[in-house]
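Let us work through a complete example step by step.
Step 1: write down the sequence.
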Amino acid sequence: MTTGPATTGPATAGPLAGIRVLEVGHMLAGPYATMMLADLGAEVVKIEPPGGDISRQVSDAYFASLNRGKRSVRFDLTTPSGQERLGELVADAHALLVNLKPSAIHRLGLTYEALKKWNERIVCVALTGFGLDAGDDPAFDYVVQAATGVAALTGDPAGPPTLPGYSSADNSSGLTAALGLLAQIVSGRGGQVEVSLRDVMLSQLNYRASAYLNEGVEPRRLPLGAHSYYVPAQLFPTSDGHLALFITHDGFWKSFAAEAGIEGFPAMAERAARREEVLDVVTKALATDTATAWETRLRPLGVPAAAVRTLPQALAATPEAIVTAGEFRLVRGPVRVAGYEPEYGPPPRLGEHGP
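Step 2: predict the structure and record it as tokens.
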């Protein structure tokens, strides 16, 4: 099997040791993608304009959360000297990941067609809102969520559309871009890779989109985030707090019903057909105890359930997920590889590693 240009390192080295990735990006999606690669051992060189990535202006903690463990070089890509420096870096790199407007990507020569003269095996990933040749319409996270139907699916049916409390489109697109980059490196071929926020979010509506395209079932919002197929699978109020309960098959229901003192509705199809009746009896049963108590009672039975926690509560409950990167405390990378522990270096100072 062709593995591309990666080199073999010691067992304790990151799986991407020997891979060099260039980043020309700002804010969230692109920097998040390359940070995931850096966490896994890749050398990531962040090419910043003279004024730096604009996320440096948000806050130091914001910048650190997306750029730990990278190197920073600073030069102006709009100048001949900047283009020459870019070519020098491309000649010795495996990949370049860019998240800018399509017109800027073309204008600055950040495509495979423009860069292959320096390195025919370079992988060029363009992370855009709607596609590299789709124009420059604004494509911020919230805009894409609205445009792809995600916002319309979120929130209480009696209320307005709702956006989640974090940048789901940017983060999902960053992970997808990292996957596309690595896939092309493994192929051993250079080339252009495209990932758009719109395509990523439509892809993540998988079963919702399939139900509409194949069965004509238009998705609708349900109270308390209820699942469209499984019953009961949603948030429930308890005597103190809310509980997320996710009953996906009859075995889970049998265990839950026995603990909650509920009789009947043994089959999934029956529970779906009698949704309101099931939700009524489950709501009454769960109101007899607190959310954390129900979690404690149901977890040993293997029933998927969790009390709704705030972010501070969630972080306090998982101290092993918090790492130190220079002066910053951050959430560790989500991929864990046996025999390898990332060093989580600090975010780079602007231009720290050269012009």
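Step 3: interpret the result. Residues 72 and 350 are 6 Å apart (CA to CA).
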